[in-house]
Design a protein that fits this description.
five-stranded mixed sheet, alpha+beta
Length: 141
Amino acid sequence: MNTTVDTKELVRTALTARALAYTPYSHFSVGAALLTESGKVYTGCNIECASYAVSNCAERTAFYKAVSNGERKFTAIAVVGGKSGAPVTVICPPCGICRQVMMEFCDPETFQIVLASGNETWKILTLDELLPMGFGPKNLK
């Protein structure tokens, strides 16, 4: 990762954000830590509603916080998730909607997605690897 924040720190921040998730229905808590090109980190957690369709994922929460603060350039995001109250033991990849939001703001060839299954174990993929042939702003030019 080409920034002042290392992968381990980004994962640790995502794990901290996960503790804030509001998941009274699924009991599946997700945390995300989004790294901007300038080195700032925005966090997000999933937030559920009784009307499931209006719930929001951790990844989108982090992106929307960052964008609403004027950020537009991102280098990486760490994502962690699992049963609420239990340690993270498996990777939790972003849903399709979150991947599409990433396509809106990130270079698919260089944006890194860190999928962590704990403090010390993770897999790093590019957005292009998670969303091959993704549709984004470049398609509309």
